[in-house]
Amino acid sequence: MATTCTSKLKILYTGPAPGTPLTSEDLAALGISADLAVHYARAGWLTRLARGVYCRPNDPPALHSSLLLLQRRFEGLHVGGKSALDWYGVRQYVAQQPVLHLYGWAAGRLPPWFSDRFPAEYRRKRLFDERPDALLHVDPFEKRGGAPLVSAPERAWLELLSEVGMRQPLQEARELGESAHGLRADVLRQLLQRCASVKTVRLCLQLGREASLPWAAKLDAATLPTGSGRAWVARSANGLLVLKP
Q1: pLDDT in tens, 74-88
Q2: To the nearest 10°, the Cα dihedral for 206, 202, 82, 65?
Q3: DSSP string spanning 128-171?
Q4: How far apart are the C-alpha atoms of 239 and 202, rounded to whole Å?
Q5: Which string of b and e fits 131-150 if b means at least 16 CB within 10 Å?
Q6: What Cα–Cα distance (Å) separates residue 134 from each residue in 22, 114, 159?
Q7: What is the pLDDT of residue 167?
Q8: Cα atoms found within 13 Å of the Cα of residue 81, Cβ hemisphere only
Q9: Which of the ends of the chain has fewer CB neighbours closer than 10 A, N or C?
Q10: How far apart are the C-alpha atoms of 21 and 65, rounded to whole Å?
Q11: Does the pLDDT of residue 95 top 90, yes or no?
């Protein structure tokens, strides 16, 4: 019994990568039952983060590993909007502790064990005509194996624009768009053609034209879902937002 216990502890401490939070299912795959996990936690060989979630002592959860775990529990979860742009180096201001913007397919709340360590906001967003298991232009960060899902810069900017007039100041969105002048027109076109928000489509086109961004001249508004011929008007904390077709 002692040999078996030692063997399982060795697997626990040498198998998973550093900073990996472990669920009861993960531990079961290592041969550690729920009862044994409770015993390990009481003995100090595991640290309990929440019901059914553990980490190894002196090995706190890392951000990327934690996001991978959340992706298993939140359908369509990915890093998006301003955070995704920041991950790709597109930023205006360096916050001391930036809030991580996460998006998913269904409503939900981030578990405290995650949000207490990583200030984050999770939002249900269905901005595009897509499936949660086949998100448009969402891939592992930098195409690395075992990396969390993150929006491509083009999708991230559209996610950011979708929140202008609510949580996102227009001026910051404008500045970030100018910083991301290298956005790919073909990717933007694919996303805009399947975008469910007229406001987002119009705002993208308007800001691109105003700043004479390279991709703007390559987009034909007539082929995009810009809505009716009327102006789109909304009142926000930044004043009146008027978007023409």
Answers
A1: 999 999 999 999 999
A2: -140
A3: BS-BTTB-TTEEEGGG-TTPPEEE-HHHHHHHHHTTBTTTB-HH
A4: 18
A5: eeeebbbbeebeeeeeebbb
A6: 26, 25, 17
A7: 84
A8: 28
A9: N
A10: 7
A11: no
Question: For residues 234 and 197, is the Cβ–Cβ distance under 8 A?
Answer: no
Instruction: Using alpha carbons, select from 123, 13, 15 the residue that is nearest to residue 74.
Output: 123
Is residue 81 within 8 A of residue 127, CB to CB? The reply is no
Residue 96: its pLDDT value, please?
A: 65
What long-range pairs does 232-235 form, CB within 8 A, spacing at least 24?
232/198, 232/199, 232/202, 234/165, 234/199
Tell me the C-alpha distance between 83 and 60, whole Å: 22
In which band, very low, low, confident or very high, does the pLDDT at 4 lie, cut at 50, 70 and 90? low
Q: How many Cα atoms sit within 13 Å of 14 on the Cβ side?
A: 6
Asked if 106 and 75 touch (Cβ cutoff 8 Å), the reply is: yes
Mark out the alpha helices in the chain (DSSP H runs).
Answer: 2-14, 24-29, 34-43, 63-73, 81-87, 112-115, 153-161, 170-179, 185-193, 198-210
Pairing outcome for strands 232-236 and 138-140: unpaired
* Domain segments of the chain as ranges: 2-55, 63-243
